[in-house]
Amino acid sequence: MPEGVVPVKNFNVSRYLGKWYEIARLDHSFERGLSNVTAEYELRSDDGINVINRGFLAEENKWKVAEGKAYFVESRDEGHLKVSFFGPFYGSYIIFDLDKENYQYAFVSGYNTSYLWLLSRTPTVSEDVKERFVKKSKELGFDANGFIFTEQDLAK
């Protein structure tokens, strides 16, 4: 877990389930070139969470889909999960900031400062939320100059 990144407490998984739009991310190979990225979360029968990530790859004119599963690392009321898209290999999914009143946006980190996302329930967020995301990310050692703000022009 990146230094200073602390998972949110009093996390309510039921309120987090459903569709989220990716507003911003750091660049990494598994999302390179994708726009209109979304993540959908639903409960599994084994107390885990099904994860379905989608993004549009314009150069191939097609949607890319990745399905995975996630499980809480400690307790269900802490925003720290492990997620896998490839067999037994898990990565960290750490919700370190969240609109706790309405669950409208979330700041999510991976296991180090190379992985970071701003997710929203809507295809856009206010400038205030973007500025807060950039400021907090810089304070925690993420490379804010590397942010990719995701196009959401096909949002439904």
The structure class reads: mainly beta
CATH class: Mainly Beta
Number of domains: 1
Q: What proportion of the residues form beta strands (DSSP E)? A: 35-45%
List SSEs in N-to-C order.
HEEEEEEEEHE
Assign the CATH topology.
Answer: Lipocalin
Ranges where pLDDT stays below 50 over 5 or more residues in a row are none
Strand order of the largest sheet: 1-2-3-4-5-6-7-8
* Silhouette: globular
N-to-C span:
34 Å
- Average pLDDT metric: 93
Number of helices: 2
Describe the structure.
The protein is mainly beta. The chain has a single domain (13-149), classed as Calycin beta-barrel core domain (Lipocalin, Beta Barrel), CATH 2.40.128.20. It has two helices and nine strands. Strands 1-2-3-4-5-6-7-8 form an eight-stranded antiparallel β-barrel. Strand 7 (105-109) and strand 8 (116-120) form a beta hairpin. The radius of gyration is 15 Å and the shape is globular. The mean pLDDT is 93. It comes from Nitrosomonas communis. Residues 12-152 form the Lipocalin/cytosolic fatty-acid binding domain. Homodimer. Its main location: membrane. This is Outer membrane lipoprotein Blc.
List the helices and strands and how they pair.
Blueprint lengths: L12 H4 L1 E9 L7 E10 L5 E9 L4 E11 L7 E7 L2 E10 L6 E5 L6 E5 L6 H13 L7 E3 L7
Antiparallel strand pairs: 1-2, 1-8, 1-9, 2-3, 3-4, 4-5, 5-6, 6-7, 7-8
Task: Summarize the structure in short.
By secondary structure, this protein is mainly beta.
